[in-house]
Each structure stands twice: as structure tokens, then as C-alpha cells.
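Appendix B, record 7
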Amino acid sequence: MMKIYDTALGPFPARVRIAIAEKSLEPRIEFVPIDLLKGEHKTATFRDKNYSGTVPVLGLEDGTFISECVAITRYLDVLDGMPTLTGTTPKEQGVIHMMTKRAEMEFIEAISIYFHHATPGLGPQVEKYQNWEWGIYQRDKAFAGMRYFDSILRQQPFVAGDFFSMADMAVLGGLIFVDHLDVEVPTECYTLSSWYKAMQERPSVKNRVTMFK
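C-alpha cells (predicted):
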């Protein structure tokens, strides 16, 4: 058994939960809920598992803890020796990692910074410092990122090419975050919006919250 320390509704945990479902690993996972509003992810006990104080974290039976969505997804994807989410050829792996990094830098991290700085975020117990102008700047960066991925999806069915991958999960994480905030996908990003609607019918995405309770 492996343990996942996360929160059911989080956009970053969603990426790993989708990976678990795509790889049919649910029977091997025990979920340990972390209350972000109470700041449990910032406690010394939790930081022993992940210095950054963020979720999700994967705990292995030998006491190893792996954090960061990309690292966890890569680990889960190669467990069975048949990776389906991170690529099998050098080209596939390179493109998937490149597009995942772009999704993180240009979209999901930007909208996350907006949440923590230009909204109440996780509340005063957690948000010790906020810079509203920086948050608004990052919101606009996220809008630009959405426009970029809209242009990509006009050319191909998935973010990194012809099949669903870790890169798609990163963009989905950003869109899931947007759903919880007072922002909307730009109206001109109709391809991105249509793609997101279609992805929400994928079982791993649709059931990411309820299937692991």
C-alpha cells in the first residue's frame, strides 16, 4: 500500500488522483486527508514529509516521501513498466515534460498565486503575506497561458500531441482551479473550454473526488 496525503478538492491533488485512476492503482492507495484551512500542511509534522509544505505527497512503505505532481506521476506511471502518461520514446517524454512545465509556469502556478494573493485564499491563519498587485499580475499571466493552450488544442487533440498525458493533467489542474475562483476562461478560448468539457466526462477526471473517499 501507498499513502497519498492530500485534500479531495485541490487542483494539484487532482493531477495525481487522475493519474492514479488512469493507472488503475486505486486498490493500492490509502488517502490521508490534510486540512488546508487549518494549516495542517504547514505544521512541522507535515513538513517532515514535504519541506515545501504543499500537497499532494506520496508516502511509500519504506518511509520514502515523494512530493511534486510531476515526480509522483512519473513514479506511478512506471510502476507497471508500461508508462502511458509520461511517454515511452525520448521524443514523447521530452514533449510531455516540456508542455507540463509550461502548464505549470504559465497557468496553474499563476492562477495559484492569484488565489493566494488577490483573494482571501486559505484564510488569515495560512495567508501570512499577500500582495494584491502581484496576484492580479499573475491572474493576467494565467489568462495568457489559457490563450496559449487554446492555440495548442486547435492543432491537436491533447496538450502534448495525440494521446492523454501528464501535460493534460497539468492544464486540467489549472482549469479546476479556475472553476473555484471568481475568474473565467476568456471567451475567445472556445477550443480550450470545449476540450475541458470533454475531459470532464473522462472517468478519471469525473470521479477524481468521489472515487477515493
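Remarks on this record: The mean pLDDT is 95. The beta strands are 2-6, 29-33, 57-59, 65-67.
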